[in-house]
Specification:
Largest sheet of chain B: none
Oligomer: heterodimer
Pfam families (chain A): ER_lumen_recept
Strand content of chain B: under 5%
GO molecular function, one term (chain A): ER retention sequence binding
Distance between the termini of chain A: 43 Å
Structural class of chain B: little secondary structure
Distance between the termini of chain B: 20 Å
Helix content of chain A: over 70%
Number of strands of chain B: 0
Shape of chain A: globular
Largest interface: A-B, 19 and 7 residues
Number of helices of chain B: 0
Protein name (chain A): ER lumen protein-retaining receptor
Number of helices of chain A: 9
Number of strands of chain A: 2
Largest sheet of chain A: 2 strands, antiparallel
Family (chain A): Belongs to the ERD2 family.
Number of domains of chain A: 1
Shape of chain B: rod-shaped
Subcellular location (chain A): Cytoplasmic vesicle, COPI-coated vesicle membrane; Endoplasmic reticulum membrane
Chain lengths: 214, 10
């Protein structure tokens, strides 16, 4: 474990917590893409499938973190699609999730380190996570704005994988550990946030709201 | 064994 990965995981936890708090406190999921949250839930379930296969005692933080990610993302989907369904902005959350799931699944079968079920599920989860934020970014571009709290969520969510890139550089240098699939997907994922990062740093930090040119 | 498949990162 290195500092970059630690802060990456903390940033990821913060993102999940910020979104849950936003929906719970405002009792509304306006401006939140339910599809992105569904895709994240699929990512966690397919990536941490080992939790379901052998229920080893919860002796280490990794297992606890995995359980937190899975339960928090499923609970977020429950809030969006059931509890606060009336506030779900289905019209603007219109990016076709199948256009992300099918290519990720296809690519996972073609490019993977080992052709076995667990590895392919993990690879699928990595590829899907790289593009899972697209429906959320698409929704913001359609509505032309993002609530400040949603911007903080996106910043934390984008920072998590950016910090993981630093973690991979660290591990390459000190542990000569390389996982090309995770690195390439992580770089693609972080690049998708660049536009948002620019808006966040130039606007939200100064207390302005993000409003995209309609 | 399947457990050694498990990645060491989240």
């Amino acid at each position: 474990m290195n500092i970059f990965r630690l802060f990456g995981d903390l940033s990821h936890l913060a993102a999940i917590a910020i979104l849950l708090l936003k929906i719970w406190k405002t009792r509304s999921c306006a401006g939140v893409s339910g599809k992105t949250q569904l895709l994240f839930a699929v990512c966690f379930i397919t990536r941490y499938i080992d939790l379901f296969l052998h229920f080893v005692s919860l002796y280490n933080t990794e297992k606890v973190m995995k359980l937190i990610y899975i339960s928090a993302s499923v609970f977020t989907c429950y809030l969006i699609f059931f509890k606060f369904k009336a506030t779900y902005d289905g019209n603007h959350d219109s990016m076709r999730a199948e256009f992300l799931i099918v290519p990720a699944a296809g690519l996972a079968c073609l490019i993977n380190t080992k052709f076995d079920a667990i590895e392919i599920l993990w690879t699928f989860s990595i590829y899907l996570e790289a593009v899972a934020i697209l429906p959320q970014l698409f929704l913001i571009s359609k509505t032309g704005e993002a609530e400040t709290i949603t911007s903080h969520y996106l910043f934390a969510q984008g920072s998590y994988r950016a910090l993981y890139i630093l973690n991979w550089i660290y591990r390459y240098h000190y542990e000569s550990h390389v996982d090309t699939i995770a690195i390439v997907a992580g770089v693609v994922q972080t690049i998708l946030y660049c536009d948002f990062f620019y808006l966040y740093i130039t606007k939200v930090v100064k207390g302005q709201k993000i409003v995209l040119p309609a | 064994d399947i457990m050694d498949e498990i990645k060491d990162e989240l």
